[in-house]
Amino acid sequence: MRLHSLAIDNFRVLRQTRLQFSDQVIGIIGPNGAGKSSIVEAIAWALYGTKVARSVKEEIRSTYAEEGADCQVALEFAIGREHYRLERSLVGRTERSEVVLYRGGERESAGTVDTEKYVTQLLGLDWHGFRTSFLARQQELNALADKTPGERRDFLAGMLGIDRLDRAIKLVKDDRKASEQAAQILGPQVAMVDRVEDELKALREHAGVLEQQQVGALGARDRAEREHAQAQAHSREHDAKQTACSRLQPQLAAARQSAEHLARALGELRARETKLAAAKDWLAALEPELAPLENLRAELENLNRRREAAAQRAALDEQVAVHKRELSKTEQDVAEARKALDVVEQFLKEIPSDLAALIEYVSADLEEARRQWSNQKALLAADEKTAGQLREQLESIKQVGPDAVCERCHRPFGDDLPQIQKHLAEELEALEEACAQHRQNLQAHLDRGAALKKEFDRLQQLDRRRGENEVRLKGLQEQADRLAEQSRRLTSQITKLEGQMAALGDTAFDPVRHREVFEKVKKLEAINTEVVGLRGELKALPELVESVAKTSEQASQAKAEVAQLEQELQAIGFDQRAYDEAANRQREAQLRLDEANRAHQEIVTKLEITRRDIAHKEAELARLAEIGKQLEESRDNQYYAEKLVNLFGDFRKYTISRIRPRLAELSSQLMVEMSGGRYSLVELDEDYNLQVMDNGEYFGIDRFSGGEKDLASLCLRLAISLALTESAGLDSSFIILDEVFGSQDAGRRDLIFESLANLKARFPQMLLITHLDELKHKVETLVELVPQPGGWSEVRLNGEAV
User: Which of 74, 174, 211, 772 is the Cys-Cys partner for 7 at CB 3.0 to 4.6 Å?
Assistant: First the structure.
């Protein structure tokens, strides 16, 4: 697979980029966070969609894109002689996913699901396989070199896809264990069949016995029903007499009760008649005592009015005193509010009228001083850094001779060495003087800023106090107005109350005379009430005499009715003893009938329960038969799962036995090419430890230098990529090396970089991602990512923006 071009619009920190890929070593260089990995991610996103991104879909579209702009990546690549173009976009506000694949200019596939499936089939690699085949990272090289044997074996299994086979083996083992556990649970249940069959046989025999008992219980119930019918007929005769007696007895009781009531009422009427005769004489004795009652009532009313007027005057006096005290306090509060108002108004007059303009002017001066201080500090830091570099360069030159090579132009110093040293020393002296001047300027800007900050704080505090006093002035004015209004209201209320007191006039009151008259009126009122009652009762005396005669006649009639009802009751001939005996016979017959019904129902219930138990046992036998089938199926599943585990295990061993020699072969070829033939053979033991042949003997990788160790790990990692691309049917292709130089020193980096130049036959396109500027001059094509003030990054190809 070869990359041809990549077009990016609004992807991550990249706004618009167009890159052409040739068969060269391409360096992608920039500081951390500049978007180097975003270029690789854009390639993967075009091929495999959102699942390869480092975040959710909503974070893929650049936050620096213009309103309504789409996020789009277009990747052109070739597989063999076929040319492809893949376009993937996030469109509109909803960021709808769209993807189209063209083959030789004709549309081959569209839609996210179909296109991603097509890409996977086309490359023969899913996202995991693509990442392992075409992308090598520093952490993978560190893992190959530094992990323990067990960790390295697991790491390589993940890279080579063997871990998927391990997961499949685990799933089959889990199925086998589940089948085994199911068989352990089902086996004891199937063993219960004989016991359930014995229980079913016993229940069927018990049902036969109950059916015979049911026949006997039906005969006993019929006999009890006949005896109960005879006893019920005999009891009905006595019930008829009892009913007749029951009808007459309440009438007799009512007649007796009425006769007794009339006798009592006649006695009470005659007693009341005697009492009224005596009340007539008492009324004649009381009437003369009521003569002075009307005059005493008038005098008591006049005394009550005088008492109310005296109480009203006392209440008005108290209200006037309270209002006067409140008025005095209010007048004092008014005076104090006026004083406070004068103080606040005087303070506000002393504040400059252009205070806001002063604050703005001082603030601008303070911001300018800060800016000048920051600029001066940046100049100082830059000059100090340059001076440090010059010192290091002078120190380095002292240690070398005329034959040493200049780091800038890569030419020997020769006779120019003294002149170069002098020139560098003069540059260093000028920079040190500039640094001293920068420090003086920094201190001057710092002192001026401190003075401006002090003045700015003073003006701001004065502005705050002005605001606080303006609020206070408004409050005091409102308080003074409120107190003045309260003073006017209290004065008006006092005048009104004094007018009410004058309107009351004379309010003299004699409480002793009031009490004396009150007691006399109370006594005479009681006598008057009694006289009125006696007069009313005497009016009813003629009617009472008539009632006595009428009640006497009714009492005689009631006595005669009682005698007649007693004769009728005696004529019926009801015998309570015979009635009770007949009722007892009926109850006994009913009990025997109830017992016969209960015995029959009990047998019927037992028979129904037994039949339900029989049906339950028959269902249980059917269930156990089904469990027997499940048990047989679980044992079959367990058997075949065991065979599948063994087959998978054998296949895993076979796969590893084929992969390890192939990785060793590819690693050896790469080692020969990258080491210039110095090391020719590489072996991998069972724990995937690297063994490198040196002078005809294999040695562990720890025997070699750091650079050689890194080189061997890189060979193994590249061998993995080659093995995967071979298995996918892809020819020599590109490779992306992400920060593989990060943990090495300069010498080891040079060794690896020079070795990579020997791999062009295998990897015509090599993309080196790094933040190291020293590689700028070593790659054939340079792609630089330069962060911009707006937060996005500009992409430059060989120094020109693309």
Answer: 74
